[in-house]
Design brief:
By secondary structure, the protein is an all-alpha fold. The protein has helices spanning 3-17, 22-35, 41-51, 55-63, 73-85. It is built from five helices and no strands. The protein is globular.
Length: 86
């Protein structure tokens, strides 16, 4: 793994575990820890964009209280499935 990619993944790990809402820390941090080795460059770019969204919106999307934007829908469904399997 290239050094730049490793730094990017470390930054994403921190951003996943240090959200504004503890529930999102657990959901996103747990998902990222489980999936980080399987993420391609496009997946990483999409996940970075997702992390820029508001935590309250993210929680509503992951919990099914609101629909995620089409761009994020498959990723959010994957995160939700992982959270529900825990």
């Amino acid at each position: 793994m290239s050094e730049a990619r490793e730094h990017r993944l470390k930054r994403l790990k921190i951003r996943s575990w240090r959200r504004g809402i503890k529930e999102m820390d657990l959901i996103l941090g747990g998902w990222f820890d489980a999936m980080r080795g399987d993420l391609g460059d496009e997946d990483i770019a999409l996940y970075e964009a997702l992390l820029s969204e508001n935590d309250h919106d993210l929680y509503q999307w992951v919990s099914g209280q609101a629909d995620a934007p089409a761009r994020f829908a498959p990723l959010v469904a994957n995160i939700a499935a992982h959270a529900n399997s825990q």
